[in-house]
Amino acid sequence: MADKTGYRAIARFLMVSPFKVRPVADAVRKRPYTQAVAILENLPQKGAGLIKKVLKSAASNALEQNKDLDEGMLYVKELRVDEGPRLRRVWFRGRGRADMLHKRMSHITVVVDEIGRTGE
User: Fold this and answer.
1) Under 8 Å between Cβ of 14 and 54
2) For residue 25, with 0-12 CB atoms within 10 Å meaning exposed, 13-18 middle and 19 or more buried, which class applies?
3) Could you tell me if residue 119 is inside a domain?
């Protein structure tokens, strides 16, 4: 999706806690595309693979819509990790009790743009 803010890709309902993904997102925000992909390939966290997948999708959207671009001209303009809905599960405990287990989901939004382009 191209608009005046760049080229966007969104992954929704990912089964990973946003609290675990946000430190990985902070490592690549506002970096050139090629450098961001290199950083994500070397991080061991599950969130790094998920962010890399969405980042490559956003870059693919940019290259598909603008044939004059190449990967070296892109940077990560915006990378947002939002909280999705929670799956609530019952966790049975001793003596007839039960706790609630919250399985958190994330929505990851990545916007890439050309280096040097000003957003009007």
Assistant:
1) no
2) buried
3) no
The answer to whether the pTM exceeds 0.85 is yes
Residue 48 inside a domain? The answer is: yes
Q: Is residue 40 part of a domain?
A: yes
The answer to whether 43 touches 24, Cβ cutoff 8 Å, is yes
What residue has token string 């958190």?
104
pLDDT tens digits, one per residue of 37-81:
999 999 999 999 999 999 999 999 999 998 888 899 999 999 999
Cα separation, 108 vs 14, in Å, equals 8
Q: How many domains does the chain have?
A: 1
Residue-range definition of the domain harbouring residue 78 = 2-114
Cα separation of 91 and 98, whole Å? Answer: 6
